[in-house]
Amino acid sequence: MQGTLRFELVVFDMAGTTVYDDGSVLECFAAAAQATGLSASRDELNERMGQSKIEVFDELARRQLGHGAEASALRDRAYEVFRRVLEGTYQRRGAQPIPGAVEAFRWLREREIRIALSTGFYREVTELLLDRLAWRDVTDTVVCADDVPEGRPAPYLIHEAMRRCRIWDVAKVVAVGDTPSDLLAGKNAGAGAVFGVTSGAHRAVSLRRYPATQILDSVQELPAILERLNRIGMTR
User: Fold this and answer.
1) How many domains does the chain have?
2) What is the four-CA torsion angle of 21, 102, 92, 127, rounded to 10 degrees?
3) Claim to verify: residue 87 and residue 105 sit in the same structural domain
4) Helices 69-93 and 24-36, packing angle to 10 deg
5) Cα separation, 22 vs 134, whole angstroms
6) What is the CATH number of the domain that holds 40?
7) Tens digits of residue pLDDT in 9-42
């Protein structure tokens, strides 16, 4: 162990935060919308990155068709196409970590800080990513949209990670993500620190509109930032 920090758990988003995303997830969203006649612009879809995917399709289908069986059927068709395209993309291309992500995990491990991954993806594609990245033993837990009653910006992904890691004090939790939904989920969960990263779907000018402790270029910067916050905290 190399010193103790005041934080006990870091909850990382996956695609765009710890897993490299070249825009593929947005492309899969757009392809599913186009294939099924779901009305949604690329900007609207990008704004919803980080959220539960089926919840996104449900919202958009109800906006287009109102509440009822027709909207539910459109939601299900769009979600099925999205799943098929997304899984095919990861099967073909594999997955790569964001530079510095593995090193950040290692740094946290050395300080006995728990590590959780959270994602708006469903369980099957989450497992596919973990296999492609060989991350089965890298983190303490992985929480996906299937595991909680509601996805981001609700706080439940973070709270479920806390429950699994047996962390009681939300002030000792750090949330890290690349979308407005990630930042709002961190705020809604009451996390002690919330960091946005510009390695994914949104640039700094967009993320700064939302509550965050700091906006970083990538998770590569996280260890140094946590060290600084710990020094500040220890002097209070």
Assistant:
1) 2
2) -100
3) no
4) 140
5) 20
6) 1.10.150
7) 999 999 999 999 988 899 999 999 999 999 989 8
